[in-house]
Design goal:
Blueprint (H helix, E strand, L loop, with lengths): L2 H12 L5 H8 L5 E6 L4 H14 L14 H9 L7 H11 L9 E5 L2 H15 L7 E4 H12 L10 E2 L2 H14 L9 H13 L4 H11 L2 H19 L2 E2 L3 H12 L1 H10 L2 E4 L7 H11 L14 E7 L4 E2 L4 H8 L6 E2 L4 H17 L1 H4 L3 E3 L7 E2 L5 E3 L8 E4 L3 E5 L4 E5 L1
Parallel strand pairs: 1-7, 2-3, 2-6, 4-5, 6-7
Antiparallel strand pairs: 7-8, 9-15, 10-13, 11-12, 13-14, 14-15
Length: 417
């Protein structure tokens, strides 16, 4: 057998606990990958195995370079599928086939809860060993706090800034309301807190929110804009941030200081995000800036960006805050990927995605040119009607010059054209 066949057979054997569709993501090291799968389908398993492949073997599976082998090396590759997968045999395989293995400190793995981050770290340690401790596996907020502790002076805060909890934030809001002569019996401080939180989730500053509130004509919006301005001023004066500021200010830091952004782009070359469908606008912009997706060009050096999206099988819909906008923005950066998922769920997902593309067509020049379905009326998570029933079997959704989404009963192919 030739070298490529021997190499791929050995690597497939090493990751034999994953199925064929999972291995396509595991072996894709360069470029962005999006996995869409249901709960319990092994998304975290893919994440852990992909990191293990990156660190041990790098881009070995897809690399097309043909290496000369000694007779001993060739025999080892032939025998490897039947061997016990001991650390010693894995190390020997890496010595023969590894191509640009990734350093653990160049990997950023993001989850949404501290518990999930801890479980991910432990699984990586069990699989890879002590080197896994050098991987930054954390929540969005934990990762951003580390960045802010080092860089926040650029924004005029002290490195020793205080993180206010909800009670602290409500107290500052009440102080702002008193300063503005707003009666708590008329205006609920909790409502203002929630409105300010939503602004920060959408990366709307007090300066941007004020004209929007005035244009709305709503009294609550106008008063909230005033409170938001006072609230943020009080936080800055105390060198304090609230929970929403942690991501909001990190995005501002990356947007306003390209040298800081460049440092972290070079540090974390491989960014993996679990439960990506739950990202809001601020989290999406954070990851996109970090990965170079908002620069107008794709950076190959930031080549391992990876998203895991979970579907809610009970409702046959997407779970999450801003899925349509985030997936739409990923279309430029996705490698072909197949994933074994319930096709009925896939239908609901991609009808929603097709809608996201349609509403963005003026900005992104996407055009829906084909749309057929037989799965009944589809609604977005907010209840808006997407498309009434069409009796013909659906084949695909085509967006000219953007992507092709082909539906099959079990598999889905998602690729750029």
């Amino acid at each position: 057998m030739d070298y490529t066949t021997l190499k791929r057979n050995a690597l497939t054997s090493f990751f034999s606990r994953t199925n064929e569709m999972q291995r396509r993501a595991v072996f894709r090291v360069k470029g962005a990958v999006l996995i869409i799968a249901g709960a319990g389908s092994g998304k975290t398993t893919v994440l852990c195995n992909r990191i293990a492949n990156m660190m041990r073997f790098g881009n070995a599976y897809l690399d097309e370079t043909v290496r000369g082998l000694t007779p001993e090396q060739e025999q080892f590759l032939q025998d490897f599928p039947a061997m016990e997968k001991t650390p010693e045999n894995a190390e020997r395989l890496a010595e023969i086939v590894a191509v640009e293995p990734v350093q653990p400190w160049n990997i950023l793995a993001i989850t949404f809860t501290n518990k999930a981050a801890g479980e991910l770290r432990q699984r990586l340690i069990d699989m890879i060993g002590e080197d896994a401790e050098k991987i930054n596996a954390s929540t969005f907020h934990s990762a951003c706090v580390k960045i802010l502790r080092r860089e926040i002076e650029n924004l005029g805060y002290q490195r020793s800034f205080t993180i206010y909890d909800d009670d602290d934030s409500k107290r500052i809001i009440k102080d702002a309301m008193k300063k503005l002569n707003l009666d708590e019996k008329v205006f609920n401080p909790k409502v203002f807190k929630n409105m300010i939180s939503r602004c920060k989730d959408k990366m709307i500053s007090p300066e941007e929110y004020a004209p929007m509130a005035n244009a709305s004509g709503e009294l609550m919006e106008k008063r909230c804009a005033e409170v938001y301005t006072e609230y943020q001023s009080a936080l800055r004066s105390a060198s304090a941030v609230d929970f929403d500021d942690i991501i909001y200010l990190t995005v501002k830091l990356f947007e306003d200081f390209p040298d800081v952004l460049s440092h972290y782009q070079h540090l974390y070359k491989y960014i993996m995000v679990d439960e990506y469908q739950d990202t809001n606008v601020a989290q999406y912009r954070l990851i996109s800036l970090h990965a170079g997706c908002l620069s107008g060009k794709y950076r190959e050096r930031v080549g391992g960006n990876f998203r895991l999206v979970e579907t809610d099988k009970s409702n046959q819909r997407i779970v999450g805050a801003e899925f349509q906008s985030t997936v739409e923005a990923e279309l430029f950066f996705i490698h072909p990927v197949r994933n074994t998922v319930d096709y009925r769920i896939l239908f609901a997902i991609f009808c929603d995605l097709a809608f996201a593309v349609a509403v963005k067509q003026l900005n992104k020049k996407y055009v829906i040119v084909a749309y057929k379905c037989n799965h009944g009326t589809v609604r977005r998570k907010d209840g808006d009607l997407l498309r009434s029933t069409v009796r013909q079997p659906f084949n695909n959704v085509v967006c000219r010059n953007a992507l092709i989404i082909s539906f099959q009963r079990v598999n889905v192919m998602y690729s750029c054209v």
